[in-house]
Amino acid sequence: MAQSLAAPTHIAIVMDGNGRWAKRRFLPRLAGHKQGVDALRRCVKACAERGVSVLTVFAFSSENWNRPADEVSGLMELLARAIGREVSQLARDGIRLHFVGERANLTASMRAGLEQAEEQTAHCTRMVLNICFNYGGRWDIAQAAASLAARGEAITPDSLDAAMALSHVRDPDLLIRTGGEMRLSNFLLWQSAYSELFFSDKLWPEFDEAALDTAIAAYHGRERRFGLISEQLAQEPHALARA
Ligand code: IPE
Ligand code: IPE
Ligand code: MG
């Protein structure tokens, strides 16, 4: 039974399958990542048009450093160039950019690029786009705990939540993974506790508006109970959903 037909407020996506997309076409993996940037541009536009408030995407994981060196450097360059090219249009479209992840081991020029893009879109209010880059769910939980410990504060679910890298947004309502794998691969381990999961067999470069609508339609078909029973939902909808 559908609980509500409201568009999911926060959609999170593991953008997986770029490498396989390229391999099937006898292209280098980086060609797949380039197509992946185009797919992301289309997805951002489609989400904004559908009234989504927050889109969080997984672009590079803590573990992706272990890939072949040329793929890693290619991905770094691709991100740097994509930001430079896209940020003005994002600002015009009202999209506020946040980069979520460990910045300490990025180059100084990369860090400056991320900060500049965040500043250029800081006034935007139509939709938040979180790009998880050099991100891992375990990193986020550990860094939140470490910052609380350094301040001598108690570690509770609420204090940890407030110290997380995604504390500026609510938890994702719908978490999509493309590419056919049914795992989280260290994405949003804490925040996905009550997210509706949707796995698409489409490779990320092929993920289009119709595929997004299929995922949103599946979300509408779910009943989010947050530990309650169905009969309680009519009386106190979302009572236990974290704000
Ligand atoms: C996801 O695509 C993008 C990144 C991890 C950077 P992949 O590169 O993992 O593509 P597949 O899974 O090998 O097809
Ligand atoms: C997850 O995909 C990371 C990103 C999409 C950025 P991976 O391709 O790295 O995940 P595994 O290795 O299949 O679990
Ligand atoms: Mg992959």
Automatic annotation (TrEMBL):
Q: Does the keyword Transferase apply?
A: yes
Query: Can you tell which superkingdom this protein's organism belongs to?
Result: Bacteria
Q: Which GO terms describe its biological process?
A: polyprenol biosynthetic process
User: What Pfam families does its record include?
Assistant: Prenyltransf
Oligomer and partners: Homodimer.
Q: Which family does it belong to?
A: Belongs to the UPP synthase family.
Keyword Metal-binding in record: yes
Corresponding gene? Answer: uppS
Name of the protein in question: Isoprenyl transferase
Q: Which Gene3D superfamilies match?
A: Decaprenyl diphosphate synthase-like (3.40.1180.10)
User: What keywords appear on the UniProt entry?
Assistant: Magnesium, Metal-binding, Transferase
- Enzyme class name: transferase
Q: Which SUPFAM superfamilies match?
A: Undecaprenyl diphosphate synthase
This chain's function reads: Catalyzes the condensation of isopentenyl diphosphate (IPP) with allylic pyrophosphates generating different type of terpenoids.
Instruction: Report the cofactors.
Output: Mg(2+)
Gene Ontology MF term list:
ditrans,polycis-undecaprenyl-diphosphate synthase [(2E,6E)-farnesyl-diphosphate specific] activity; magnesium ion binding
Q: State which Enzyme Commission number(s) the record gives.
A: 2.5.1.-
Catalytic residues in the record:
16, 64
Residues given in the record as substrate binding sites: 17-21, 29, 33, 61-63, 65, 67, 177, 183-185
